[in-house]
Structure formats: C-alpha cells, structure tokens
Amino acid sequence: MANIRWGYAINQWRVNETDLVTKEQRESALKVLSVSGFRAVEIGDNAIGGPEIVTAYFGSVHGLKDFLNSCGMDRVCSYFGNLGGGSATNPGDHVRLSEAAKRLAGFLAELGGSCLVVRPLGSYWREAPITQEKLRIVADCWNRVGRTTKSEGIQTALHIDFLCGVRKESDLDELVKVSDAATVGLALDTAELAIAGIDPVKFYEKNYARVKHFHFKDAVLADTLDEYKEPNADVQLLNGGGKRQIDRWFYEMGTPGGLVNFPALVKAMNQHNYDGWVVAESDQSPHAEESVMLNGWYVRQVLSKL
Amino acid sequence: MSYTRRDFGKVAVSGIALAQVAGGQVPAAAGAAQKIKWSYMDHWTMRSPRGWVAPQVAAKYADRFYKALVGVGFQAVDPFDFRLNALIQVFGSAKKVEQFAQDRGVERFVNVFGNSGVEFPHLPEAHDDAVRRFEAKLKLYEGIKIDTFIVMPGARYWLVEPVTDEKIKRMAECWNKVGKKTMEHGIKLTCHHEFYCCLHTREEIAKFYSYADPQYVGFFIDTAQHQIAGIDPTELYVKYHDRVTGFHFKDTHNVDLREDYRTPPDPERVAATTYRWFWEMGTPQGLVDFPKLMKALKDFNYTGWLTVEHDKADIGGANYAESTCRAKWYVDNVLSKIYA
Lengths: 306, 340
Known about the structure:
Number of strands of chain B: 13
CATH class of chain A: Alpha Beta
Largest sheet of chain B: 9 strands, parallel
Largest sheet of chain A: 8 strands, parallel, barrel
Distance between the termini of chain B: 17 Å
Shape of chain A: globular
Order of helices and strands of chain A: EHEHHEHEHHEHEHHEEHEHEH
Oligomer: heterodimer
Largest interface: A-B, 46 and 41 residues
Helix content of chain A: 40-55%
Number of strands of chain A: 10
Strand content of chain B: 5-15%
Radius of gyration of chain A: 18 Å
Mean pLDDT of chain A: 96
Strand order of the largest sheet of chain A: 1-2-3-4-5-6-7-10
C-alpha cells in the first residue's frame, strides 16, 4: 500500500509580478490550500522563492515555517528550481549547478521538505538534436547534483514537461538508463506526459522504482502536431496555444474529457508501495482558488477512496 | 492558529491527514460526537468562457459548485428559492437536483431562502396570496427534505415607514398563516432580518416575535445584518435562543450610523457608508465576535446546522471561491475548536 502525502504547488497564484508578494496574498493562498486538505506546499523560484527571498520577506527560514503554520499548513514539501540558470548539457555549468542545488537542498531540508524538482535540460527546440552523448552529459550533471542533495537529505527529481529536450520516450528511457538510480529520481507530471503523448500510467509502471515525486494535473489535448519542435515553442505553444490556439493546456483532476487516468495511476502507486509526495498543480487555471477546491474534492471523494 | 516552531515537528504527517480523514482512518475535525454541521448559503459565481456565471445556469456549473464546496468540507447547501427553481428546470425535479448534489457529496439542502413574491406582508390583503404562494413552493419541492423556509419578514424600511405597532402585528399574522401551512409539511418558516428590513431594531424585533406564534415562526440570525444594525448577534441569540432555527455566519466592517437602512432604493447595494457591507469571517476588520457566539451556542447546547454566507463577496474584484475558503478555514481553525 502506498504512503501518499498530498501537497499543492503554489505557482498557479504567481501569474503577474504583483501576485503572491504581499503577506495578505500569501496568507490567502495558503489558507485556500489548507482548507482544501493540502497541508504541504511546493514552492519555487518565482512562487515564495528561495533562501535569499525567504529571508528578505520572512526574516529567516523559521519565519516562513511559522507563517505556514499560522495559515494551517504543515510544511514545504518540495522546491521547483532552475538552480540559477545554466545548462546540464554544458559540462562547464555542472559545478555551479551542483553548488546552487546544495544551497537549495539545505534550505529545503530546514523547511522540512524532501524533494528538489528540476527540469533536466532546456526545451527541445533549443536542445535538439538529442544524442546519446548529450544525454550522458546531462546524466553526469544530475548525478553530481543528486549526490550533493542526497548528502543534505534531499531527493533530486527530474521533471519532464512536454516541451523538454527529453520528452520522447526513447530519450527518456536512455536518460533513466545512464543516470544514477541511487541519487537521481523522476518527477512524474501527469499532464505534461499526456500532452507529450506518453501514457503516465504505463510510464509509471515501467519506471516506478525511479519515480520519487508526482505532479497531478490533467490535460484534455495532446501535442498531436508535434509543435514542441517548432522554434520558440515555449511562447508559441505553451503560452500562445500553437496552431490550434489552445488557451489552456492544464486542468483540474476529474475534468470531463481529461486524458489522465488518475484512479489507474493511484492503483499502480498502491501496488508499487509509492512512498512520497503527490503535488497537485493547476498552472494556467483561470481561477486558482476554485481549482484547488475542485482538486480537493477529487482527492477526498475519488482518489482517497481507492 | 497557535502552532509554534516546536509544534512544527509534531504535525510532520502533513498532507497525509487529508487521505486519512477521507478514508475514515481518523475522525474529521468535528469528531464522533458532532453537534454542529456546516452548510453554505449559495450566492456563488464562477468564471466561465462567457464571464461570471451562477451554478444554476447549467449542470456543468452546478457540478463545479457542489464539488468545490465538498472539497473544503461543507456538508450541505442552502439555496435561494429562485436558484433552486432554476435547477429544477435544469434537472427536471427537486429530487433530481438533490440527487445531483448528493452524487457529489452534498448531504442535502437544509434552508431555502426566498419570499416567493410576498413583498408586503404588512398589508392584510396580501396574506391569502402569501399562503397560496408558499403552497406552490411546497409542491415544487415535494420529495426532498428541507428544514426551513427563510424569509425577510417585512419590506424595506423606506417602503413601510412609519413602522407602527399595527403594521408589525399584520406582518406577524401573515407569517403565522404561512408558517402554519408550511409546518403541515414539516418545514418551519423562519425570519431573517436584514439591516434595511422594516423589522431591524431591537424594539421592532421584540414586538414582531411577541406577535408571531413560536410554533410557526422561527428566528434566523444573520450575524452581519444585525451587527450593521448595531445589535450584537450573540445578545440576540441569548435572548431568543428558543426561537432561533439557524444562522448565517458572515461578517461586516461597518455599522450603519448614517441611516442607510431607510435610504431608497436598495441600501444593501448602494449606501453612503460603504461600497461593500459583507465580508467572510476572519478578516482583521471584522466586527462580529464569532468566538463569543460559538461559546453561546455551546452554552445553550445548540445542535444542528450552521450556515456560512458571504453575499456580494465579488465586489471590488474579490471572488466567492476565495471568500469561501477563507471562511471555512476560519470555521475549521478557530470556531470548531470552541464548539463542533
């Protein structure tokens, strides 16, 4: 039986530069998460922020912890970071990325978190062609980072999105193969895989031993036109909607027409005794609060009853 | 919340709590000997491709509404009659509406708010028509369990003043007749006194309930409305506790000191005092002492439903989802620790 701990990514509140910056905005967002049943939060560079930002806003890491507790939250569960820039495909960046990861891991450990979520490499249209040699260099980077964060008690997990340089299943298989199973895990984002045309349940069944973190969100359309290969896909496809002018890629769990079979995935997680965080996410939601409430309903009424 | 850094480690189970509660492994906040259940008064609007819409517009919006409420732990819904009536048109019958809500985890509809067109109960010639209107309402809602029909017992102040003893007596007579009819069907009629209602001062309220038959006419306390009228809602509850059938828990930041209550046409929407009268529980400027009220409920061993309300929560760019979450957070983290 799995030991699933539910968290929520707060990034959906951070759309504009004026969002999630005041105490009142943060308090409201955290109370929405808490009352919807999500008592742990995933933060990131742009949403709450790293050690420097947290110290500036809250005085100290303990200041953030106290603030979270005052809002009915128990902890930060994970951190989504880009480690200050640089590329895993460039060996010259590896040491700096590892040092940045070490700082974040120490910060996260102090907050009570356990998982550092990172994008393994840039977008496909920038990184292609994806060669075995490139994947080996990328793996070297994350092996180094993984060892570093593990020494702080933090798991590194590679988050695959549908624009990512590694988003073809064959490339994913290769990266999994050449990276260190002891230190480098995967963050399985259900919607991102579904949009990339990969069944998240099958992917989990194949890689369950490496999956150390989840993002649960749904999608109703896949990138069937392979627009991820097009120049500026981040802007043109993710934000602009591509040739089909898709306004919104990501949806709440339980959305009619959703591509992700969450009950099947949770059953598989139970079979494989998944022990870790599942972070619900609703980036691109037109209404952050309602999305959290709907995801809370789905967890309470559907997934937790499986 | 009284969590400290030291407590942080004690609650390390974190998000597991949700699954455990849902799975019945640990009791919900209210515990096994639950005396209070929380319902939600429906003023909801939500975003849609055509802008803001209310739940009764279509089944897909009602679906989102009920799920959102259950998602934060509300157990029931109090609809306006016009909203429930629209949903009956969507689904075919009151029973089907109830089933739709129940399929999403709502226990039932508890209180239905609306005057059904009975606007001038101080006029004796309107009384027979009032009874007929509520007979039609009873027929429309056949097949579902409802505890009370909530009404505003008198028209807006400016439409009635001077509010004489005679007029108050006529209003009580009207609701006695209507309440007797609804009670035949097991539904209690109960009165909700808006701050601009012609029955809103201590004296008017006292006279009204001296004429109203306790068997047929209950008192539904709206915390914010009475606070705006300058009356402590806890004081009212203590005085009328044996008449009280329920509450709207909502807050306000203002007392009406400018006689907005008698200003035509609609003091709840356009007033000199403020652009927004009503707020969710838990705002720093809130005037209602909810912990005091909860203690009083505990003292009088009140059991049953309490209702969260925050009408017009969308004024000034706010929204119902956020207000609802914040109010329910206050329930779970403050009020339920006093009495649950």
